[in-house]
Amino acid sequence: MDKDRVAEILSEIGVLLELKGENPFKSRAYANAARAIQTLEEPIEKLVAENRLGEIKGVGEGLQEKITILVQTGRLPYYEELKASIPAGLVEMLSIPSLGPKKIKALHDRLGISTIEELEAACKAGKVAGLDGFGEKRQAKILEGIEYRRQYASRHLLSAALEVAEPILAELSARKDVIRCDVAGSVRRFKEMIGDVDFIVSSEDADAVIECFVTRPGVMSVSAKGSTKASVILSGGIQADIRVVSHREYPFALAYFTGSKEHNIVMRQRAIQRGLRLNEYGLFRSQVETRDPSLCLPCTTESDIYAALELDYIPPELREDKGEFAAAEAHALPRLIELKDIRGSLHNHSNWSDGINSVAQIASIMSQRFEYWAITDHSKSSFQANGLDAKRLKQQGDEIRRVNESLAAKGVKFRLLGGIEVDILRDGKLDFDDEVLAGLDVVIASLHVPASSEAENTRRLVKAAENPFVHIIGHPTGRLLLEREPYPVNIQAVIDACAETGTWLELNCSPYRLDLDWRLWPQAKSKGVKCAIGPDAHRNEQADWLRLGAGVARKGWLTADDVVNTLDLASLRKALAAKRNRSKR
Ligand code: DGT
Ligand code: CA
Ligand code: CA
Ligand code: ZN
Questions:
Q1: How far is the CA of 421 from the centre of ligand 3 (A)?
Q2: Dmax (CA) of the chain
Q3: What is the pLDDT of residues 144-176, one digit of tens each?
Q4: Which residues does residue 388 pair with via DSSP β-bridges, in sequence order?
């Protein structure tokens, strides 16, 4: 554990003690010690090893003992117990601008407030203004702070992060004083939701790069600005961090700030086991924490770092400490799917239901980029989405056929596929009879109106998978990121039913869904379940969501072979026929 982290924990202890209303001298002692440790010239591990913590100003015996435990074991039970003894809501309130520990304690003691929601209600009811030391002005400020926090300190969709990150990255790479740059953190790892966006840059003119970063349009406020790093809030409320490092440090900083934290911890351990030290500054021939460039192994890429630790290169999406180390050691990492492997999409809507584009418009755009594109509009029970009844479905089918004929006449290979996203109704019955489904190229079954019982939802989905005319279970858990939790369902049972019946599971790559979750794909894959990546496009531009789909599929350890819409059209047709033929055997 480095000194920054030790200092961070000590100062947090100081704040927690204050929240608890402990003796102010005690909490101040922690804050002072934290400050002293931050400015140490030597590695803290060295001081611990040589029993010299007493030399630090303001660090008495009690603190020495705690720091020693922390540095030697990486944990501090005292800190963990202290944290656990305070309602989580009080600690959370610290993130509200204008509220410090003393005020939070007063609110807790006098109004019994222990969550942000309670605080908001009390402010709205005017109860906070009446407290000694608060008043109308402060009450209004607190409400403002709660709103700010809600907007700006929350989590964001990956798609929103990519959207803000890409222009910044383009701008940075175009600068002459930038040697290399990349997005790091959870965005690079393709997490479905992110906290903030991290940029790593190598340059010999850090000042100029930082200045450009904090003054570019789109920056709403600058939260921190130093000589090599800065944090800003972008319009739209996403925080972005930048770090500028030297050319030599770049691969180490990129690897470190890509994370995940869990992945980094294992990397660090592997380094230690080999008599090395790994941190954001380098990989050093050293038994103690250091930044001495003369001890650093020469690595110019992340691959070099992995190689030095006897690992194959681990793609960022897999860096979650979920089995990637064993695989990289055994040269058994999968060759992950790439966007260019995807040849078409099986889940899309047209203006026959709630989509924007006509069948002809869809064909004219998608034929430029893909081999096939299925139109799978909603079925009649989804009346709010203008779902199709059998008669309109047939008319739509005729239109699709006409468009395909004219494509064929022009010698174009691209084809539209005709299909439906059929609602799964009560008891797992579908919105169309088998005879209707049998006439379609692609059938997705989706649960849009779930029951409250897990058993019931599971039964419905399993029954849908057992239908020989259903190819795909759409957005299998129904989650809406940042909005709605998955419906209760035994997803293991659904995966098993898909494996049993040869039904595909969808990786719905609408940025709001990314469902089935990447964490479940390795399991589905191990049972032989294939994946259909579907943008669920309601307008043509949403074809771009396939990029999210490919990235999240990578995060789920999937290869091109695991994903059905990497097949060419002829093979796809065979695969679509396979399930129906199965039931005839
Ligand atoms: P986020 O922003 O919450 O979506 O998640 P990340 O992973 O982007 O986290 P962030 O921005 O706090 O930090 C970026 C990376 O820096 C993180 O993935 C790993 C590394 N990192 C940050 N703090 C620590 C730490 O205390 N220990 C270790 N080992 N790595 C850290
Ligand atoms: Ca981040
Ligand atoms: Ca960050
Ligand atoms: Zn749907």
A1: 40
A2: 87
A3: 888 877 765 678 999 999 999 999 999 999 999
A4: 379
